[in-house]
Amino acid sequence: MGIVIAVISGKGGVGKTTATANLGLGIALNDKKCVVVDFDIGQRNLDMILGLENRVVYDIVQVMDGDASVKQALIKSKVNDNLFFLAASQSKDKTVLESEKVQKLVVALKEDFDFVILDAPAGIESGYEHTIEFADAAIVVVNPEVSSIRDADRAIGILDSKSYKVKNGEEVAKYLIINRIDADMVQKGEMLKSEDILEILSVKLLGKVPEDKGVIDASNQGKPVILDKKSVAGQAYMRIASRLCGKKVDMKDIEVANSGFFSKLSGMFR
Amino acid sequence: MFGFFKRKKSASVAKDRLTIAIMSDRDRTNAYPFMDEMKAEIIEVVKKYIGVKGVEIKKEIDGDLEALSIDVELDKETIVKA
Questions:
Q1: B18 in a domain, yes or no?
Q2: Which long-range contacts (CB under 8 A, 24 or more apart) does A98-102 make?
Q3: Confidence (pTM)
Q4: Alpha-helical segments (H) within A119-187
Q5: In a domain, B25, yes or no
Q6: Which range marks the domain in which residue A36 is found?
Q7: How close A159 gets to chain B, by Cα (Å)?
Q8: Contact yes or no for A153 and B25 at CB 8 A
Q9: Above 70 in pLDDT, residue B80?
Q10: Whole domain around residue B53: which residue ranges?
Q11: How many structural domains is chain B composed of?
């Protein structure tokens, strides 16, 4: 029996889908069986990030409506046999989701996979609520920026009131990924520090991901950045994925600029 | 602010603004998850006796004291049991 994790953000464009794709692949690289599911009905994107857009035949709405089986709709990753993908519907819109059907799908996936990762749509409307409803845990992705953090707090609030687990008196575990950190800006006091963000949102830290131009290059090619061993963001995702798989990986302090003597010197005067 | 004095770093400005904005967001929206259900039930109870247009529940905080104020807007036209 696997665990269901919803990847949420509130605000769009913070790297939620990128995080989903990379964590999914990172978990698979840790030899766990993982399925990533695109819940962003009407705005399918995870297929592009994974480089699987040409393989989509059936989508989750067809599975939920009984027009296709889970087996038919699952797409295997090109790069790892442990990773599978379920596409969002592109023609329907977010309002088609129904609680009972979502639950049935999620329960079926849990039977076969160690990790079921749901990529939530941006916003906090019904599509989002259906994504979080049957999740055991949530990963909140934020950028160190005011609108992202504020919207994340709203999304967390809805998670805490609408989740099936919470309604049944249990707790939904919440973990934070801070994405697109610019160490220089943090050092100059121009970007929020992780500890401040954690204090404001009061959630546990899962990991920090530095700003990395390689992310766009990777998505251009449909190859998640985690495959690029030299990419700092890819390395960060690998650390996070390993943590999710129960390995002890120290938090790397990516907020300290590591670019040589000069920045270290200026760091001494803070 | 004023040129020669050390300007407050924008990250700490962000922290202060966010803390306040989020506190007021939380108060307004998810003070209690059961708020909608409670509202509906109150309306049902009041309706047994007198017409009701709507119910407004506000959370007020005064220092350590937290209170819920419940405003029931009556509909005088439809008095059920007088």
A1: no
A2: A98/A64, A98/A130, A99/A130, A99/A133, A101/A64, A101/A65, A102/A64, A102/A130, A102/A131, A102/A133, A102/A134
A3: 0.83
A4: 126-133, 146-162, 164-167, 183-187
A5: no
A6: 3-267
A7: 10
A8: yes
A9: no
A10: 33-82
A11: 1
Question: Would residue B19 count as lying in a domain?
Answer: no
Question: What count of other Cβ atoms lies within 10 Å of the Cβ of residue A218?
Answer: 24
Poorest-pLDDT segment among A86-95, A197-206, B28-37, B48-57: B28-37
- Give chain B's contact residues with A (Cβ, < 8 Å): 9-12, 14-15, 17-19, 21-22, 25-26, 29-30, 33
How many domains would you assign to chain A? 1
How far from the centroid of its chain's Cα atoms is residue B41's Cα? 18
Per-residue pLDDT of chain A (270 residues; tens, 9 = 90+): 999 999 999 999 999 999 999 999 999 999 999 999 999 999 999 999 999 999 999 999 999 999 999 999 999 999 999 999 999 998 877 778 899 999 999 999 999 999 999 999 999 999 999 999 999 999 999 999 999 999 999 999 999 989 999 989 999 999 999 999 999 999 999 999 999 999 999 999 999 999 999 999 999 999 999 999 999 999 999 999 999 999 999 888 888 866 555 545 554 554
B51 in any annotated domain:
yes
Distance, CA of A233 to CA of A225 (rounded, Å): 7
Cβ(A142)–Cβ(A9) below 8 Å: yes
CB contact under 8 Å between A200 and B30, yes or no, is: no
* pLDDT for the residue A270: 46
Mutate which: A129, A164, A192, vs B, most B CBs within 10 A: A192
At A238, which CATH number?
A: 3.40.50.300
Mapping DSSP onto H, E and C, the string for A42-104 reads: CCCCHHHHHCCHHHCCCEHHHHHCCCCCHHHHCEECCCCCCEEEEECCCCCCHHHCCHHHHHH
Mean pLDDT of chain B: 79
Asked if the Cβ–Cβ distance from A192 to B15 is below 8 Å, we say yes
What DSSP state is assigned to residue A186?
H
